[in-house]
Records
---
Amino acid sequence: MNKPVLEIKNIWKTYHVKVLGGLKSYEVVALRGISLKIEKGEVLGILGESGCGKSTLAKIALGLETPDKGEVFWFGKSLKNLNGNTYKALRAKVQAVLQDPYSSLNPRYKIKDVLLEPYFINISPDKKEGLSKAQELLNQVGLDISVLEKYPHELSGGQRQRVALARALMVNPELLVLDEPTSALDVTIQAQILELMKTLKERYQLSYLLISHSLPVVFYLADWIGVIYLGTLVELCHKSSFKRLKHHPYTELLIRSYLDPFAPSQIFPEIEVELNPPISDGCVFLDRCPVKTKDCYKTNPSLVKKTDLQYIACFNV
Amino acid sequence: MNPFLVVKNLTLGLTYNRVPLVEKVSFEVKKGEVLGVLGESGSGKTLTGFSLLRLFPPGISYYSGEVWIDGLSLYSLEEKDLFRIRGKKIAIILQDPLSSLNPVLSVKEQLEEVLKAHRPDLTKKERFDKMLNLLKEVGISDPEIRLKSYPHQLSGGLRQRIMIAIALAGDPEILVADEPTTAIDPTLQIQVLNLLKRLNRERGLTIVFISHDLGVIRWIAHRVAVFYAGEIVELAPVERLFLTPLHPYTQALINSYPKEGKFKVDLKGGVVELSKKPEGCYYQLRCDHPCDKAKSYHPQLLEVASQHWVRCFRYE
């Protein structure tokens, strides 16, 4: 059997935030023991609110941050004991597309240079081959080859996001980490980019780790949907059975908070509780949970397999 | 009932080359109504919102048109008389509460500033009570503690509620809400929308709600104005607009929203360059069935069914 493209085992990450010019510091626990894996050709969508650790997870998956505890595996190889050459070879296989297409492209590089730089470093220094690859990819992402000579500021947001996708594909990756790839775009443009990402995935047999706060976006692209709350993976559910299964109370809350413009009627849930840091031992969702029991104050539940298609971290579901 | 807010042929744009960014926009809002303003980035919806308070970002100026608020003509007032309207008749809340609150002043100082300006008649004690009431009204459960807080100590949802409390301090009758929930999470978004709905219901607060999010507009607005390239292309009651959108742009917008994991892609979609607007209909280049007339003539906003206005030659 093939090794999973990405596997993350029991990752913990804490940031130390300094305040008052370093006189005091406090800890922010971004991730609390997250484990997940992505098989070849699969899309894992991660939902969660701001500050829940989604982006830290993306950085760790990309190898840009080292976890405090736990291990990251790319294609079955642990990042901890990779030698330089293997790391470099694998590095190119895992690429990123970030949220803001305005700041993720170097403003002083022509699109040509944006696309060629990773190619020269990772594939070959042959400029002619690189350019023909760049032209082919621009074609795939729906851009005219005339953009090669343009600068990022001459392109619109949607066009820049297409360039970012083309740049990631320049080095023949197998896994793309997409951190909120469409949230800076308008609805009509978002639809175009979502469709493009689906087409590219089929054509190049890519796997995606898709991070988003938008339910319809995750629902459109993902095979598996993961929900993170305060650094904990509270649910993992396959898309095929997402609609008919009962969910973790936080997932339920997210579903009810989604404003569907096509629903016949909508009842706004009353949400009054403010976010507080979780009690040290108890469940992370304790403060806002409508179904808590005694057990919830004692330990944080771990992710338990409910069916083949659903894993939930809750004592009461 | 007479409309409370009337906008007539409002045109504004860049100061240096006179390129209009908002063109001949006209609409009316009745008292107690929520008007949703829908459009993509660069369509002029935010500028229109600011112009209702006669505020302009640098480099933008007013060319022509009228704004009437409760019988007062905003653009014929002297600059020094504007304080009678801003904050008292009409107030605004913005997208990002962290950058619109002053980071070095406590919540109390920021609320007090507004109250001192608009309610000089209040004593210190009355002012304090009013502040507590305002915070309670926006759903803050421990107002005494929150008054002493600074913006960075508050969560996104609380900050947005403080913003709303500051906007309400002068007892305005209209609130312009410019994407007030775009920067916050879905669960907090619901809290803020619930609050605005309640204020609309209980206080009769008139709201002009600007957003690019179809879901938000669908569930807060009574009527919706759709902006494209600086003008209104469709204006209709909310349910009608979502069930039977008439303008091809509105149709594309609604169809491109993921529905049951599916949507229709508008292939020609892209932001219009306002300095290079085509002759005739501005939408012709993206239109799926462009008509010949659109190449040389500009369509008018016409009432094609009761309360349903659309700017398209197909319906003339």
---
Amino acid sequence: MPTRPQKVYYFGTCLIDLCYPQAGMAGIELIQREGIEVIFPQQQSCCGQPAYNAGFPEETRKVARQQLKAFPHDYPIVVPSGSCGGMLKHHYPRLFANEPEAAEAQRFASRVIELTEFLVTVLDIKLEDRGQPIKVTWHSSCSALREMGVIEYSKSLIRQLQNVELIELQRERECCGFGGTFSVKQPDISSAMVSDKVSDIAQTGAARVLSGDCGCLMNIGGALEYRNIAIPAQHLAEFIWERTHG
Amino acid sequence: MASSVVVDFPKNFANALSNPQLRRNLRAAMDTLGMRRRAIFSDKDAFEALRAQGDAIRQRSLRQLPQLLEQLEKKCTENGIQVHWAETTTEASQICLSIIQSHHATRVIKGKSMVSEEMHLNHVLEEHGIEALETDLGEYIIQLDHETPSHIIVPAIHKNRDQIARLFHDKIPNTPYTEVVEELNAIARKVLREKFCAGEVGVSGVNFAVAETGTLCLVENEGNGRMCTTAPPVHIAVMGLEKVVERLTDVPPLLRLLTGSATGQLITTYFNMITSPRKSGEKDGPKEVHLVLLDNGRSKILADPELRQTLKCIRCGACLNHCPVYTRLGGHAYGYVYPGPIGSILTPQIEGLENAGAMASASTLCGACEEVCPVKIPITHILRRLRNESYSKTDSPNAVKGHGYKSNLAESLTWKGWALTNSAPWANVLNAKLLGLLGSQLTKLSKVELVKNWTQVRTMPKFASKSLHALAKEKGISDE
């Protein structure tokens, strides 16, 4: 088990900032409850992934430099997203490989840790479920699964919740079709993918679908709502906080 | 499809997606192939070790490609195989044509070869009155239906049994309708046997060419490859020049990776190693063997250390089988010879971004392809590189053909605006953040189109009344 830090930085992600601030706060509160001080630098903005994936590395660097500046001290940087976490941890070193900030980006990247990995491997968090029995299902985001490798940590947290039954999707490992700008640049393919994902979710009989990434949640949640399927899509941190605080 | 043909990607994609039969066929087939692959590579550590080896072999081969090709030519020539070099697909087809014509041949039998598809060889031969018959069962099926392969390994994978039954009944004279697989196989076998006997020239691809021995390796399951390379008096092997490996000992790990990744087989039913034409005293084998080495943009790709990784590909098709986009579109929608993830990085480099650049946008960058690639091609990195070069003109000699073709689009400008708002700390206002989400105004799409595209199957995202920045401040979370 890595050493327990006294303080951590929290990188909230732009999507959480804009659409899911409650999920972001839940992550902060889960960490605080374990006796760790959380610092939320107000100067933070976006990890830069939208521009990076669209093919605009120069614009990405401009935004990324702002993040390098906003998290100056040697604290872990906790990220409630596999996707933004993957960008900060795996793509920043590459993005700055031939830039003056190369070493700084390396150090920054080495401090980045996804929220559920942090809760499990660093804090060894123990959850006490206070909620009513519920069936949930889980969607693995591609970056959490393949870049960050944190899915087992996320699911282990769900399994700690005594009254929660986890029903797995038939195609848990398949992309939901969000892909950032892909969803609007290739609307037909994206629609086909999310429609299949929603059908998979519906067949589980779960009352809620959880994920660790708000991009997927926005996509899946929007598609569920469009089809009038009453299964809310929720960030895992918010779900855990709801069931364990008070 | 030739580069002069404009591919209407949006239309192709929409057509493929609205074909439920195609969607079902593909899903079933890809699931089966994926399951077989998982079964054969069930030991994850062993697979990782094997693919590290495969990656190293392919990297070593590409590092010394010019020398290896010279060595291959020398060895083949010593062994009696005639080597021909073609810079373009037209040259390669002409070489094949003149060999065939020099033998006054009009009946060519073909083993499966994606490079021959790249050359549009059948079409060229047909124009000169030469019948080129595909003998791989899948290739034979699609040739009957005047189609191109929809997958690089299983070319007729878009068709199901019923469709093939109907096709055989309609296209092969005196064929009663049957859906029994064994009977369908027997029908094709009967037709093909006669053709094998009558074939005057055999054409095949090459999976690996070994430089140290001058050996051409051919992987297949039906024996048709062996027929094409042994029955006719002349054998022409066509090969992309990246397929060379240094040593004979490089072949077993690559073969294992290829068959395991492609069809979940430990080894294929047939593995042919061709090192010379028939020697005196031998009773069978072609009297002439030719090797046509095709460049078609590959040496340019080789020059760039990142793009070069594209050429590591051993054409197993695993990236197609595991791609959520390919699984929904099938190969034809891509409009070019090589579909799926590998096609989406290879084709724009060969055909130019201005023609095929859109293929690079048909990916969520989910990484399922990289996870299974047996030689660790960084497909998502190369996709981002191609997206980048679509917008940026550069002086680099390694720039991808057609770079900067989208350089004056509004998208470039709006990303600059996005960068400005997200790098200025005072700009943490909702409207600025909105830009970063879906690329509202960031793509060339108007806001109306953007909303229309998103709401095809989804409700609009709801923006919170307070940002996390504001909430954190309100709750007294330290800003240090």
